[in-house]
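Appendix B. Raw example, untouched.
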Amino acid sequence: MTKSRSDKCEVCGKELVYATHQRDYKDLTCKFCGIEFNTNIYCEKGHFICDICHSKGPIELIEKICEETTIKDPFELADLIMKHPKFKLYGPEHHVLTPAVILTSLRNNNIIKPNGEAISFFDIKEAIRRSSKIPGGWCGFYGSCGAGMGTGVAISIFTGATPSTDKPRSQANEMTSRSLAKIADNLEHCCKRSVKISISETLAFLKEKFNIKLAYDFSKCIFSDFNDKCEKVKCPIF
């Protein structure tokens, strides 16, 4: 059993183990898809990512994990996905992540939409479809952060808003505006911060407007050490 000198676990940063004897192979569950594999590649702390998840693009990854996960905490789910090697520090995949995570956590908490219907995987895929149209750099070039806009997408789907619905359309726009107001914080832009702020604002909105209360753990940011632009103590999620 050997350790690579350079290959690191993409979950925790510890060194990867490459088992060369059958006795050292392990039955491990992929950190992302939850499927168990017999593997000879894992980190010294037991983390493992299967080849399928390793090779997926960010949006495919979001869809796959959101379809299969049972995680109820939106922050935990967002961190899990953002830790994946296909996810970069910055990029438009964060625009997609935000509404997908929100709707997935609502589904996994058995929250019913205002029309009495359950949240379906179709709803989550529709959120992915809509938010994937928001290009990168939208925050600076168009004055509207894609992660913040993603919260409006989530509320639009949750309420069944269309351009011709009065209150649901207004609620979707209000949701976006509240997220954007918090994201406009005079700090160096950070997609991780925007996602966390957007989720936080959505949870407050759902509690205020629909009396929906989700249990969650707003833990310390796990990405600051990898971001040389991190604002550290100035950042509300640091």
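End of appendix B.
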